[in-house]
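Onboarding guide, step 5: your first structure request.
Type a short instruction followed by the sequence, for example:

Predict the 3D structure of this protein.
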Amino acid sequence: MENLKQLLYKMLIIGFDGKDILNNKKLITNIQNGLGGVILFDHYIDDKTKSKNIQSPQQVKKLNKSLQSISESPLIICIDQEGGKVARLKEEKGFNITLSAKEIASLEEKDAKKEYENLSFQLKNLGINCNFAPLVDLGINKESKIIYGLDRAYGEDSEQVVKYAQIFMDALSKNQIISVLKHFPGHGSAKGDSHEGFVDITKTWDEIELIPYKKLLHKTKMIMSAHVYNGKIDENYPATLSFKTNTQLLRKELGFNGVLVTDDLQMLAIKKHYKKEETIELAINSGADILMYCNQLSNDDTDETIDMMMHLVQNKKISIDRIKEANHRINRLLEGI
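The system replies with structure tokens like these:
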């Protein structure tokens, strides 16, 4: 049995600086301690002219090979490659162009399949084994800048969303890449952006937003939570921190038994309203298996995060059984990559 610290490291995905790991002793140590995964970004959010982890196909492939070489178990190497405006691998750096969900939904199924097979093959060739896609939010709020405004939704009709999301998932699966349905329980009706602050969808959310999850969750091994507040489901907490959303609804009612990963816990919808240790406690106890710190909006020290997690377990605010359950799900996930 791994020691407690190893179990906790496995429950983290982090962002890091640099296009190689040669001088990143902190990251190397984190990975050697059992870090669950990393997420790659093309540029820094506060300076889009400065590249962060991605320079060229050759460089990314070399970086990912280096990352895996120092990890005892398979490292989850993640990216946001939805297509269109949410694509970390860009044409100007030598990567294949990727169409947006809106553009994909205008194609015949065979053409959509070809697009997604090309995308998935490229990810596999680069050594990326987890894509935070497909986005299955319904494009029902035309005022949404973060979903509808960026052409990230396949449409407002759940059948259309399910059809094209399934094509994407099949292509990823064919290349041993983890697909991630997002953002549970639905972000498409939200007007606001949870990167920037509190987003309340109580009045706009509809149960139809659960349909893609009901139809696709048995085909995926990972789902990402949303930071939206939905008083129809939980009157106290946003979805990422909500036991009612993540355990009662997603696990018990819908029957999902895969890995639940949080969206970036540095987003202001969370960070503005909850202290870090409280966030960790609520997220894990809500049913989240992996906590994500992208280190784009701020910088969180991983050792500090682990110390907080240790403190919460040692003080019985998080049970060791919950930690073991999360690790069991993560280990099952790793078997397929």
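Each response can be followed by summary notes, for example: The domain at 13-334 is CATH 3.20.20.300 (TIM Barrel).
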